[in-house]
Amino acid sequence: MSLQEEVEILRRIPLFARMETARLKLLAFTSQRLSFEAGQALFHQGEPGDSAYILIEGEADVSIDSPGGPIVVATLGRHAIVGEIAILCDVPRTATVTARSPLLTLRIDKETFFRLVNEFPQMAVEIMRELAHRLEKTNQQLRSAAAAARGR
Asked: Most CB atoms within 10 A, among 12, 121, 124, 144?
């Protein structure tokens, strides 16, 4: 995949959509391109968060540990970003992310990610929007689970 193709992929992601081309090229150049086979973990719940991943091709499952074993809470596809919570909050990974199919990613290290957030306030706004969307989805799932538990 060429640098220009990676720039075009980054431009389609709301987080990076308003960044100028030169910055996107720098981001694409400094990011690490990684491939994962189906079933291979990008990272595990509880590990230190040192990077975020942008999914370029394929799908990945997000799962959390539970007493009954892992529970898949989301499936992510092309152009999704994952792993940013551990970076932003400086906490261990909150979930395990596993390739559901062959997966191509761009790995953005913590330092580069923070530099981008500092230089592009709009990126911080997009991160907040994404996190708020995820929180609302989680709240809906909790309401559904609570209603199902009451109905038993």
From this structure: 124
